[in-house]
Amino acid sequence: MSQIVHLCSKNCSLIIKLARVPEILHWGNKIEQIDEDILLSTERPISQARLDVDVPLSLCPELGSGHFNAPGIEGHRNGYDWAPVFNTTEHYSSESCAVFTLRDDVANLELKIEIELDYDSDVVKKRISVTNLEHSKYYLTKLSSTLPLPHHANELMTFHGRWSREFQTHRQAFSHGGFMQENRRGRTSHENFPGLFAGSNNFDQQNGQVWGFHLGWSGNHQLRADVKSDGRRFVQAGELLLAGEVRLDYMQTYSTPWLYACASNTGLNGISDRFHRYVRANIIRFPENKPRPVHLNTWEGIYFEHDPEYIMKMASEAAEMGVERFIIDDGWFVGRSGERSALGDWYLDEKKYPNGLEPVIEHVNQQGMEFGLWVEPEMISKDSILYREHPEWVLELKGYHQPSGRWQYVLNLQNKDCFNYLFERLSELLTRYNIGYLKWDMNRELVQPGHVGRPAVNGQTKALYALLDKLLATHPKVEIESCSSGGGRIDFEILKRTHRFWASDCNDALERQTIQRGMSYFFPPEVMGAHIGPDESHTTRRCHHINMRGMTALSGHMGVELDPVKVPAEEKQAFAHYIALHKQYRPLLHSGRSFRLNASDNRQHISGVQSDDEMLITVCQLAMPDYALPAPLRISCVEPGASYQVNLVEMPETSFQLMKQRPSWLDKTLILSGDNLREIGLTLPILDPESALMVHLKRI
Ligand code: DGJ
């Protein structure tokens, strides 16, 4: 006898049919009342030349029952028990969550499927656990979470990238076959962000039905979207397990990472709004009412050249510009003269800092700023005291040559002594010095990550989480940034134990526009580290006016990444101006609803953030405008019946080679109604390529 389980949130319904196995009948817009005939109205025909039975696209599709696409579970016992088929034995459900227990009494496996629908954000999270009920070992090769998509999800938007070019998007048709992404880099990676969107034809920022997915996991993963030959479609995501990585003994359990997903009726804006709500309420742990301090990070300013007197000068200049937290990046610890040495030796370099770190920290604090320090705990250089003492702590496979990456190696965090050493070092630094913030870096991929000879990405990732958890339990006030050569480790699970991401090592404001937009679909602005870099970008050598740099950094968690001592006074004033602007709008930027508007000129990015009574909109001209005159800015997210006071906040000083005369409203305050703003819009000035303006709307 089939039963129906109905999970409900503010705007969303998830209806599950429970027969032999649970199967989602509907996931999307809210259904107030489920029809009594739903089981009949959703019954599928059996087509010719196929199996004589209907095969459900269940919450864990089984090869053994005739699901010929990617199964949700794969594994074996020395070649046996490789095609399990389950029966539901128990289930529990409430309005917001359901737990199903399934058993295969032949293969002796038990599955537990947990699915939760968060009321406020409409975000679904799902994970599966498998337990081995038999005394012989079960070799699990795959356990993934599957969620179905409706037939009108015809297009995909996927993510790709590389170092200094994270979060690039790619659109593709989704009508036959599918898409698959496999990440074997041992960290979340720049290349394969574990997220994707599927939606109705031509979905865009503001329109269309879209389903969004993110796997919260910082190790290897597999993410796929498939269209079955019968037209049904689904997304599946889970950890990518290396051969032999998970071997379950009697009564041992393996659980997948959480898969987060949501459905929107209002294009990508609806997706980011839901993910942001969820992340703010359930993932981010940040002291309430504490504004996110504006940073100055020393990396692009001085690299490895550390002179405490000079650093204190930098700090004074930073404070004058309005910086609130000063972070000493790489180069402060003993023997760290460049990239090739000293990782692992987390002791102050007393040659560089003969009077200790205390005078620098005191100076920073006296300037009214917090102090932060860079570390890269998971790494070891061969040229280090630690390596000379503990070469056996390297994560590698004995008998093979382990290649270096940035001339460094990964430490095996599953080795208890190594774990304890790192905890002791970090904890001692946090106890000895007044450090409010750690920039936690991770600059290489895992190759042959072996622990006692067996594959260990899963173990390494969990040990990293445990190290962070232990450190935060001991030093609950410290804030941590997740950095991994920029944006190589950005995901929901690491965010549970960190407070901010360094979005990219690319500080080129033009590149950042695309990187930050991609990231903004999943993460709210307050966790997106965005810094004003030098006028000539260190990664691209492209030069940008301060307007473009300031406006691009302003919309995230703002900072500055250069040597303020070397910057001319005029430029410093400009930094101070953008920092002040950021602080003025910080409460809105860091708590409001983010959105993007479709631009008629596809060389423009239009994005904004709104609360119930105000709104900031940034228009960035990425390249030469497509037409001689810009299209009016039509703002769809205003209340049609409300009135707004509209002001220009910021625009580039240049732009006068493309425009002889500016619209006169730029120097005035306009009063405009919501329906005018939505339908007629606001005529904008002409922007130079690579420049940006900002408009403020206040509801009156
Ligand atoms: C890579 C990071 O992404 C940079 O910001 C910087 O911290 C360097 N590592 C330091 O080695």
TrEMBL record:
GO terms for molecular function: alpha-galactosidase activity. It catalyses: Hydrolysis of terminal, non-reducing alpha-D-galactose residues in alpha-D-galactosides, including galactose oligosaccharides, galactomannans and galactolipids. The keyword Hydrolase applies. SUPFAM superfamilies: (Trans)glycosidases. PROSITE patterns: ALPHA_GALACTOSIDASE (PS00512). It is an enzyme of class 3 (hydrolase). Coiled coil: none annotated. The keyword Metal-binding does not apply. Its EC number is 3.2.1.22. Belongs to the glycosyl hydrolase. This is Alpha-galactosidase. The lineage of its organism: Bacteria, Pseudomonadati, Pseudomonadota, Gammaproteobacteria, Alteromonadales.
